[in-house]
């Protein structure tokens, strides 16, 4: 395995199925471009005469669209920006804060990352989409699922304030889990 000598950028991207590492090699003398997702080579181009441009690929189980833009800043300096679903990484992560909830918890010595996609009510645990059962209750809804023989429930309750909207709470074995900040 050759050493990544032309590594110019590394990004960590939190998606529903996990946090993914994207690495980009750009050989400005050879024109080489290599994209790695979670250590696996996704794209390799040798002898590119055009040193600027865009490389597109997908990330994770959901095949989320990603692109690396290569722009010349000055002389032989380049800028590399990552886009996820057509948005800059910053815009994507800001939007994600509004559309998902994430909880990190430890059950029986194992770490679990649980993600709720608010628009679809899909629940992900450590990269797997979970089987869930939803029910209406007096003050909102409950989405039930199981993680490692532990009963889990995401309660959705109106905050009573339009700006805040719905508050989602994860309860595992009758214990409320605080939301994680990624």
From TrEMBL:
Alphabetized Pfam families for the sequence: FAIM1
GO biological processes: apoptotic process; negative regulation of extrinsic apoptotic signaling pathway via death domain receptors
Coiled coil: none
Top-level taxon of origin: Eukaryota
Keyword Membrane: no
Signal peptide: none
Key words, A-Z: Apoptosis, Cytoplasm
Protein's recorded name: Fas apoptotic inhibitory molecule 1
């Amino acid at each position: 395995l050759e050493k990544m000598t032309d590594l110019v950028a590394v990004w960590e991207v939190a998606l529903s199925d996990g946090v993914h590492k994207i690495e980009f090699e750009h050989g400005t003398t050879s024109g080489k471009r290599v994209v790695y997702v979670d250590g696996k080579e996704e794209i390799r181009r040798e002898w590119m005469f055009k040193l600027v441009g865009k490389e597109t690929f997908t990330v994770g189980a959901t095949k989320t669209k990603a692109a690396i833009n290569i722009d010349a800043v000055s002389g032989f300096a380049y800028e590399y920006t990552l886009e996820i679903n057509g948005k800059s990484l910053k815009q994507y992560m800001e939007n994600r804060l509004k559309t998902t909830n994430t909880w990190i918890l430890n059950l029986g010595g194992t770490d679990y990352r649980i993600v709720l996609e608010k628009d679809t009510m899909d629940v992900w645990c450590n990269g797997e989409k979970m089987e869930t059962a939803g029910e209406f209750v007096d003050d909102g809804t409950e989405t039930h699922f199981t993680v490692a023989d532990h009963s889990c429930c995401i309660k959705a309750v109106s905050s009573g304030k339009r700006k805040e909207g719905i508050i989602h709470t994860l309860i595992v074995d009758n214990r409320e889990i605080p939301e994680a900040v990624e």
